[in-house]
Amino acid sequence: MSSFMPGQQPEDVTWVRYCEKLGRQVQSDRVTFTEYAHGVTLGAISAPEEQLQQCVDAIPVAVLPQYVDFLKSWLVPADFMPSPRPFLVRNDSETDAEAAQARLKPKYVRLYRLVQDRMALTL
Description:
The chain has 123 residues and is mainly alpha-helical. It is built from five helices and no strands.
């Protein structure tokens, strides 16, 4: 059981739990790999920066090589700036979209590197 200092809030691990749940679902064939890959990527990018590693650690080893290929084919051609639409409100302007792409790029780059590092450790 965790103890907290007065006024301290327990860590919100909603996105980590989401990534873990998706991992169980892809392993049990309840979601396709494509659904999994898009979902876990959006979950990891939505998670707080300090939880990104936990999201990567939640990727099942069985799908890790396929996920590495997915990220490479999706992120590299887009210079690590895929469409930010999942993170925008419907009426956001093109300027807002460009700003979101620029803001999210470092996180996509970090996700890609963390996944590459994890893959290297599993070889």
